[in-house]
């Protein structure tokens, strides 16, 4: 992809025993290219043991900080996360795709006295951290409540920084820690559950009119918290979420038996070939050695979005695009199967 750029590592910061933050050097001529909105992510490309790996990581710095920083939590059998936590160092280079994503927060100079909330678990704090700091620094009267779940304080990414934010904004920033393996004074024990959400909304912060709530973490937590928030009369459109993983496999309702002639536009180059309708569009495109954008290939990021300009396709699952966006022709190509004899897909027009 033409939008990948080689960036050198300025610093690797140890956050917890199993997570690091990576700070990139962004050259002056790429400053505009890597401008981002709070909550967005970047895709990192790295060849390890002869295999190209692509991973998406949320930006945890703020747009006005002049810094491009992500945090990577080491996971079991995670090839890139293990490399980042144990081998990556200042001076190394990584291929980085420009910022993208729909889980965003744009501050308003005339926001008034708004109150926001976020529920995050584990590494789900990374985009939320950017959103929190942006809201606090760019909206001088706004307040922010964070409910943050982890196993222990030692495994809590940005633990010290969150306490410092609390000290800097004692009347505007409030954090409720939730620990599943440690009982601490002034923190919840267990996981973020229905009772946790109700306590925050109905007791601890009763009377606060929350304008928007941001959720990031496991799918089960997001579904539960979203349900309880709506029970507490928060409109669904004011609940924003981003999945880091999904248990939903998904399937199409249409019987897929034929072939489709597909025309793909990517990087201003058009390619036409015939594909099996049972194959997902992204897989077919990559099998043609076309450098289409992608990252998770599981329907939880938005890297592979393209516009259908002719024909139709059906997604096995969609947890990202709104009904209006689908109506406009946007589709997640990692989930989409063509359902018409011909189809035209444009990766450039999104």
Automatic annotation (TrEMBL):
InterPro entries: 2Fe-2S_ferredoxin-like_sf, 2Fe-2S_ferredoxin-type, 2Fe2S_fd_BS, Beta-grasp_dom_sf, Cbr1-like_FAD-bd_dom, FAD-bd_FR_type, FNR_nucleotide-bd, MRET. Keywords: 2Fe-2S, FAD, Flavoprotein, Iron, Iron-sulfur, Metal-binding, Oxidoreductase. Residues 260-350 form the 2Fe-2S ferredoxin-type domain. It comes from the Bacteria. The keyword Transmembrane helix does not apply. Residues 2-106 form the FAD-binding FR-type domain. Pfam families: FAD_binding_6, Fer2, NAD_binding_1. The keyword Cell membrane does not apply. Its cofactor is FAD. PANTHER family: 1,2-PHENYLACETYL-COA EPOXIDASE, SUBUNIT E, NADH OXIDOREDUCTASE HCR. This is Flavodoxin reductase. It comes from Mesonia mobilis. The gene is paaE.
């Amino acid at each position: 992809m033409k939008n990948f750029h080689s960036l050198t590592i300025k610093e690797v910061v140890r956050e917890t025993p199993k997570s690091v933050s990576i700070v990139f050097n962004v050259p002056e001529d790429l400053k505009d290219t890597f401008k981002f909105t709070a909550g967005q992510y970047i895709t990192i490309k790295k060849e390890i043991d002869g295999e190209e790996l692509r991973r998406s990581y949320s930006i945890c710095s703020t747009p006005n900080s002049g810094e491009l920083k992500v945090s990577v939590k080491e996971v079991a059998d995670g090839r890139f996360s293990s490399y980042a936590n144990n081998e990556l160092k200042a001076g190394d280079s990584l291929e980085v795709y420009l910022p993208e994503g729909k889980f965003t927060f744009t501050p308003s100079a005339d926001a008034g006295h708004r109150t926001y909330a976020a529920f995050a678990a584990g590494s789900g704090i990374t985009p939320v951290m950017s959103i929190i700091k942006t809201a606090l620094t760019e909206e001088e009267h706004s307040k922010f409540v964070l409910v943050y779940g982890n196993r222990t304080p030692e495994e809590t990414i940005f633990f010290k920084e969150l306490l410092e934010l609390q000290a800097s904004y004692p009347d505007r920033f409030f954090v409720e820690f939730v620990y599943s393996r440690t009982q601490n004074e002034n923190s919840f024990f267990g996981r973020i559950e229905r009772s946790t959400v109700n306590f925050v909304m109905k007791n601890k912060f009763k009377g606060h009119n929350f304008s928007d709530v941001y959720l990031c973490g496991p799918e089960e937590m997001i579904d539960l918290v979203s349900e309880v928030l709506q029970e507490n009369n928060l409109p669904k459109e004011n609940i924003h979420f981003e999945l880091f993983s999904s248990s939903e496999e998904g399937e199409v309702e249409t019987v897929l038996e034929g072939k489709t002639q597909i025309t793909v536009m990517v990087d201003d180059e058009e390619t036409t070939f015939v594909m099996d309708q049972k194959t997902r569009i992204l897989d077919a495109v990559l099998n043609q050695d076309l450098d289409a954008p992608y990252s998770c290939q599981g329907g939880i990021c938005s890297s592979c979005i393209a516009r259908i300009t002719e024909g139709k396709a059906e997604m096995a699952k969609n947890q990202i695009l709104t009904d209006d966006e689908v109506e406009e022709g946007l589709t997640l190509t990692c989930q989409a199967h063509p359902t018409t004899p011909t189809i035209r897909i444009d990766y450039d027009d999104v």
